[in-house]
Please model this.
Amino acid sequence: MKKKILITVNSMEIGGIERSLAGLLSVFDYDKYDVDVLLFSKKGEFLPLIDKRCNLLPELPQCASLLKPVREVLLTGHPLLAASRIISKLLIDNRFKYSDEPSDAVVFAYLQAYWDSSVRLMPKLKKKYDAAISFMWPHHFVSKNVRAKRKIAWVHTDYSKAALDYEKDLKIWESFDTIAAVSSECGRVFTKIYPSLSAKLVTVENILSKELVRQQADEFVPGDMKAGPDVTRLLTVGRFCYAKAFDVAAEICKILVDRGVKVRWYAVGYGSEQQSVEKKVRELGISESFIILGKKVNPYPYMKNCDIYVQPSRYEGKAVTVREAQILGKPVIITDFTTARSQVKDGFDASISPMKPEAVADDIERMIKDDELRQRLSKNAFESDYSVDGQMNKIYAMIEG
Model:
């Protein structure tokens, strides 16, 4: 008898977590496991990436309501869910009224409050599973509304950057048998906050297909990345949010332009801070040098055609885009966020820069001028074994208990 597995995630919108899930599903052992996938909102550009051997469950309107505007929730006949959203928002607004917490950190608080008040209004799944995997925080639904012999939850971010009620959050985490962190440093930060959970923690790297990344990188040549032969093409891919620091990227670009360094910095992505970054680019007067390309379902041709990949993040769990750029043999610069040294080998397959705009600009300029450095980082990254064969064995071990 095949074991029955459930995997939940918010949606398949463009993002590193969603792409990582697609990678995991592409290598699952379907001869041994029946896999149900529940998307709280059955939408997103990455929907076609879900392996056809999975059983994609129908969307649950109550779960989808958390990803819709309150007005729409009311109009679709869920007044209690709408009310819980409104009350939760008022409580969190009041809690952070005089706080200087970054907006991304407060988003965690809103999500936690919404789920705390709403999960009891959501249906419980009738089917009983051998294992249930909550692949994306918040983990309330699998914790409260799913019956499974084993429950597994994922940690994808630097938990020290989340403005949470950690006591309430701990109670949710405690209901899981195993917790998977995407890097050792990500796990270390997590267990520093929740030391009582350290025995449950396993490091499971993001699962990416080297062959698929390289194949998709050849699908087309981006016509919107043209630059003169003496212009260095920089690239950053990610969600426009506080964590990814596109605003800092614009500042770094301004420093380079003022120094007379010929660069074009391309930004691929979308998100809540895109308009504010666009405004900053205009105010800095670098619209010709910092070019926002927007959302791209396939970012790999852009990675292949850049000269240097830059990840200026304020924090990360493990940046999927950095590994993808390395698989394509790009020289990579990342900032020294908490988990950076579990992401790359500084000086071998990437360069880690101090988290200051001037310092990052210095390192970009140095890399532009130093052909030997660029070639060494590129060669080492391209030839490195970023295989994930052992990672699926870890996942199977968590499922089997």
Notes: The chain has two domains: 3-208+389-400, 211-383. The radius of gyration is 21 Å. The first strand starts at residue 3 and ends at 9.
